[in-house]
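Can't paste images in this forum, so I'm doing it all in text. The chain is below; anyone willing to post the predicted structure tokens underneath?
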Amino acid sequence: MTVKNAAKVLRLNLLALMVFSVSAAILGGCAGGYVGIRTPPPPLPYYDQPICPGPGYLWVPGYWAYGSDGYFWVPGIWEVAPRVGWLWTPGYWGWSGNAYIWHGGYWGMHIGFYGGVNYGYGYGGVGYEGGYWRNGAFHYNTAVTNVNVSVVHNTYTKEVVNTTTVSRVSYNGGRGGIMAKPTSQELMAAREKHSGMTARQKQHHQAARAQRQRM
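Text version of the structure:
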């Protein structure tokens, strides 16, 4: 191969890599992660949690996603777990050393690492204080979740004390980011059997992206 042809092949490979990178970034929260974004996501906005629609729904907190027009906010949503006993581990943005990478959320038996991000409503940075499963039913902590007790009867009240500084920072690592590290239990949770977003969560994500594009 001549030097001229080798240079042409190299340019084509670089172009293909750029197309792949942009496509992966635009796919956003539906995939396992982003190729990498150089700017961090904005602070978490303040918002009210909508009331739980009924028994069996679990709270999936809102998050910053990334599309062709930049970051856009995906509001939180109540969703039915794909399996009884499963919980939602939120996704989070993390600094990889040269870019911010999105680590997608997942459903599983235990709560894994979500960057130490305080998403609120039970997700204070570690674990989940909004409720728990018992005998095939989910029990809601009314101290941190918006539940109508006349509709949902599996409830209790347990005040949650924050032992860390409350912050609106929405990413882990990097300049100004949260410096939390995963525990051994959180690492084990990530290795357990789990699944990604449900079809309804993906539709919700796409609707938020479409709304951002119309703005």
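The CA atoms of residues 18 and 57 lie 40 Å apart. The radius of gyration is 20 Å.
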